[in-house]
Design brief:
This protein is of the alpha+beta class and 590 residues long. The chain has 15 helices and 31 strands. The chain has three domains: 237 residues, Bira Bifunctional Protein, Domain 2 (BirA Bifunctional Protein, domain 2, 2-Layer Sandwich), CATH 3.30.930.10; 145 residues, YbaK protein (Alpha-Beta Complex); 101 residues, Rossmann fold, CATH 3.40.50.800. β11 and β12 form a beta hairpin. The chain is globular, with a radius of gyration of 29 Å. The C terminus is likely disordered. The protein binds one RNA strand of 77 nucleotides through β14, β16 and α13.
Length: 590
RNA sequence: CGGGGUAUAGCGCAGCCUGGUAGCGCGCCUGCUUCGGGAGCAGGAGGUCGUGAGUUCAAUUCUCGCUACCCCGACCA
C-alpha cells in the first residue's frame, strides 16, 4: 500500500471531547470519526486494525469447530417476546416500529435469533454438538456512552453459540471455547487475564471474562500469584471464617458496656471515626444497610471500611433477586431512622452479617435513632447473633479463596466473556431434541462473546507512549512502513525505496510506502502516532554505504541493514515479534 | 431521568459581559528557500457564527424555545 493512495491523516491537537488516551489517539490518528454520540465510522487505518482482529478470531473459531453465519442486526419483537426479554430488557434495547407498525429492535445480542435458527433445523442429539458464530454489529442504547470506542452504543462483536445434548457436552463445548479464547488473545499479543465472572443479565451459572490488563481499566481483578486464581471483584468469594487461617479463633469476650452517645450530623463512617475516640477506627465501626429484594428486606452488617456486594446480598434467602439498597424513605419507614444512624440493636429486620464481622466485639454502630450511635456493642449480649454470610466485595490483601495466598489487584478491560446458558433460551423458545434414551429435552446452550472493536481501544490503553499508539504486530494497521527521506530531490532514494517496497511486497510483508514526500519529522511523528511496529528509513546518507535504517517502534536506537539483505532481515524481525508467549500473562483457573 | 456546561473555518480556541455582519494557532492552496524527529518567509482560499422565533435602525453578541454534543449524578449510609 502506498500512503499517497491511502486515507492517512493525523492531527497534532487533541480533540476536547476525548477523555481517555485511546480515544484521543484514535481521533488524532483518524482511526475513527464520530457520527453521533456513541456511534462511530471506522476510517481505513482503523478498519485495518479491526479487520486483523476479526481475522484472527475467525481463524481460531473455525479451528475450534465453529461455523460462521451472519444474522440480522434488526430483530423482530416477536422473538424477544418468546424468550421473555422484550419485557425484561430495559431501555438499553433500542426499539422501533416499521411502516406497518410492527415492532423491532436493534440486536444487542443474538440468542433469540440463533435459537430460532437451531430449533428449526435440529431435532436429534445426532445433529449435535454444533457451534455457530458471527461477527456482527450490535447496538446497546447505553445511558451514557463515553470513552469513544470503549463504551460505544454501536460496536462490533463476535458472538458464538454452542448447542449440546447434555451437561457434559455443554462443558466440553465451553472448554473448547475457553481454549480458543486463550489462543485468540495469545495471537493478538495483549497482556490479559481470564477471570471468574458474574454471568449478569444473560443468565447461566458458569462464566469467565477475558480482561486486557491496563491501568485505566474499569474493572478490578483480584488474583492469587500462588495458585493462579483470578476473579472479577464482583464475583470474588471470600473464605468463611472457619477456613480462614487468620480468623479461626473464637470471638473475643466483651470488654466494654454498651453506651449510647449523641453524634449530631454524623452520617458516614469517616465522620464517625473522626468523632469517636482514637481506638475506634473505621474497621472497628459497623455499618448497617437495608437491602431489599424479591424475597424481602434485611439489615446487612459490614465492617466500616468494607463495601457491599449487591450480587452476594441477592444470594441471601432473606433478600432474593433484584437486590437493591432501600431508599431513604423506605429506611425511615422501616427503621424510624435515616442513613448513617442504623445498627443491629433493636433492628426489626433480619440481620445478616459479613464474615469479616464474625470476630467483632466492642464495636460502634448506629442506634436506629437519628444523631445517636452506640459504642461497646457485642453480639448476643446487645443484639441477636446474626447469620454470617459472604456479603462484602473482596479486596486486595484478603486471603485468596484458593487458600494458598493473598489477593493482588489489577485493572482490566473486559474484551471477552463466555457463559454456559443451559436451557434458559431453549426452554423458553422450545428448542428441544430427541435424546438417545428417547426422551425429549431442551438443547443446552453456551454463548461466547468477544468485543472486536473494544479490543482496538484496549490495545491502545495497554500500548502507548508520549508519541502515540504501540500496537502488537498482529493487529497493527501495517507491519512495516518505509520512510524515504527527501525522495523528491533524490532519484537514488526514490529508486531504493521503490525496490525495497516491491521486494517486501513480493515477500508477503504488510508494508506501507510513505510516498507523500513529507518532511522527515512529520513522517516519523506520524509513524509513531500510528504505532506501526517496524520502520525502514531510506536516505542518501545510508545509501552511500548501500544501507538502509531499521527501527522498531519502541526502541530508541536504529540498526543499519545492507540494502541487499533487507528482506531477509525484516522477515526475521517480523517472525521474532509474532512469536507468542513472551508478553502474555495468561494466569487463570484451569 | 436530575444537575452543570458547550455549539463561531477540517481540528483546537478567542470575540459576546459593553449589539455596528468575525479573529488566532494548527491544517489546507500557491511561490521561493529548506529537508534525518510535526521547517521558514511571502501570498491565498475557506465561516447562512447549531436552529427557530423575539427585542432592535442593526443580533455571532441580548431574551425565549428547540436540537445536538460533553461532563457530573442516579448503590456504600
Amino acid at each position: 500500500m502506498r500512503a499517497s493512495q491511502f486515507f492517512i491523516y493525523s492531527d497534532k491537537s487533541t480533540p476536547a471531547e476525548a477523555e481517555i488516551i485511546s480515544h484521543q489517539l484514535m481521533l488524532r490518528a483518524r482511526l475513527i470519526r464520530k457520527v453521533a454520540s456513541g456511534i462511530y465510522s471506522w476510517l481505513p487505518m482503523g478498519w485495518r486494525v479491526v479487520s486483523k482482529i476479526s481475522e484472527i478470531v475467525r481463524e481460531e473459531m473455525d479451528a475450534a469447530g465453529g461455523a460462521e453465519i451472519f444474522m440480522p442486526a434488526v430483530q423482530p419483537a416477536d422473538l424477544w417476546q418468546q424468550s421473555g426479554r422484550w419485557a425484561a430488557y430495559g431501555a438499553e434495547l433500542l426499539r422501533f416500529s416499521d411502516r406497518h407498525g410492527r415492532e423491532f429492535c436493534m440486536g444487542p445480542t443474538h440468542e433469540e435469533v440463533i435459537t430460532d435458527i437451531v430449533r428449526a433445523q435440529i431435532s436429534s442429539y445426532r445433529q449435535l454438538p454444533i457451534n455457530l458464530y458471527q461477527i456482527q454489529t450490535k447496538f446497546r442504547d447505553e445511558i451514557r456512552p463515553r470513552f469513544g470506542i470503549m463504551r460505544a452504543r454501536e460496536f462490533i462483536m463476535k458472538d458464538a453459540y454452542s448447542f449440546d445434548t447434555d451437561a457434559a457436552g455443554m462443558a466440553n463445548s465451553y472448554e473448547a471455547m475457553r481454549a480458543a479464547y486463550c489462543r485468540i488473545f495469545d495471537r493478538i499479543g495483549l497482556k490479559y487475564r481470564m477471570v471468574e465472572a458474574d454471568s449478569g443479565a444473560i443468565g447461566g451459572n458458569f462464566s469467565h471474562e477475558f480482561m486486557v490488563l491496563a491501568d485505566s481499566g474499569e474493572e478490578l481483578i483480584l488474583y492469587c500469584q500462588e495458585s493462579g486464581f483470578a476473579a472479577n471483584v464482583e464475583q470474588c468469594p471470600q473464605l468463611p471464617p472457619s477456613s480462614a487461617p487468620s480468623a479461626s479463633a473464637a470471638r473475643p469476650a466483651a470488654q466494654q458496656t454498651m453506651e449510647k452517645i449523641h453524634t449530631p450530623n454524623v452520617k458516614t463512617i469517616a465522620e464517625l471515626a473522626e468523632f469517636l475516640p482514637e481506638a475506634l477506627r473505621p474497621e472497628q465501626n459497623m455499618k448497617t444497610m437495608i437491602v431489599c429484594g424479591d424475597n424481602g428486606s434485611a439489615a446487612v452488617l459490614l465492617r466500616g471500611n468494607d463495601s457491599l456486594n449487591l450480587i452476594k446480598a441477592g444470594n441471601q434467602a432473606e433478600i432474593g433477586d433484584n437486590a437493591r439498597l432501600a431508599s431513604l424513605a423506605e429506611t425511615q419507614q422501616l427503621i424510624g431512622a435515616g442513613f448513617g444512624s442504623l445498627g443491629p440493636v433493636n433492628m426489626p429486620l433480619p440481620l445478616i452479617a459479613d464474615y469479616a464481622l464474625h470476630h467483632a466485639a466492642d464495636f460502634a454502630c448506629g442506634a436506629n435513632e437519628d444523631d445517636y450511635h452506640y459504642t461497646g456493642v457485642n453480639f448476643e449480649r446487645d443484639c441477636p447473633l446474626p447469620r454470617f454470610a459472604d456479603l462484602r466485595n473482596a479486596a486486595v490483601g484478603d486471603p485468596s479463596p484458593c487458600g494458598k495466598g493473598t489477593l493482588l489487584g489489577a485493572r482490566g478491560i473486559e474484551v471477552g466473556h463466555i457463559f454456559q446458558l443451559g436451557d434458559k433460551y431453549s426452554q423458553a423458545m422450545n428448542a428441544v431434541i430427541d435424546a438417545p434414551d428417547g426422551s425429549q429435552h431442551p438443547i443446552l446452550m453456551g454463548c461466547y462473546g468477544i468485543g472486536i472493536t473494544r479490543i482496538v481501544a484496549a490495545a491502545i490503553e495497554q500500548g502507548h507512549d508520549e508519541n502515540g499508539m504501540i500496537f502488537p504486530d498482529a493487529i497493527a494497521p501495517f507491519s512495516l512502513i518505509i520512510c524515504p527521506i527527501a525522495a523528491q530531490r533524490s532519484p537514488a532514494v526514490r529508486l531504493a525505496a521503490e525496490e525495497v517496497y516491491q521486494a517486501l511486497r513480493a515477500a508477503g510483508v504488510d508494508v506501507l510506502l510513505d510516498d507523500r514526500d513529507l518532511r522527515p519529522g512529520s513522517m516519523f511523528a506520524e509513524c509513531d502516532l500510528l504505532g506501526i511496529p517496524h520502520r525502514l528509513t531510506i536516505g542518501e546518507r545510508g545509501l552511500q554505504n548501500g544501507e538502509v535504517e531499521y527501527k522498531q517502534r519502541q526502541e530508541k536506537e536504529v540498526t543499519l541493514v545492507a540494502q541487499t539483505a533487507v528482506v531477509e532481515f525484516i522477515q526475521e524481525r517480523l517472525q521474532s515479534a509474532t512469536r507468542p508467549g513472551s508478553s502474555v500473562d495468561r494466569a487463570g483457573p484451569s
